[in-house]
User: What shape does this take?
Amino acid sequence: MFDVVVRVFADLLVAVVIIKVILSYFLTPSHKIRYILDQMVDPLLAPIRKLLPASMGLDFSPIILIIIIQIVQVLLIRLF
Assistant: This one.
């Protein structure tokens, strides 16, 4: 049961990160939906952005965050 909860939570978090990235190309930061997504995801992206600055205008922090989410998911499922 715990593994199902972890998988669902991780999948939802990854989906929110992907949706945020896609909508950032189409919606202004002041848009209501984008603002809500930014409030959810930016606290997770901020530490990664400090360690990995944008190179040539590209922000790779969402990809790193997704990888970290997947690693934590696997570790949690194997430990419990």
User: Anything to note?
Assistant: Residues 2-79 form one domain. The mean pLDDT is 95.
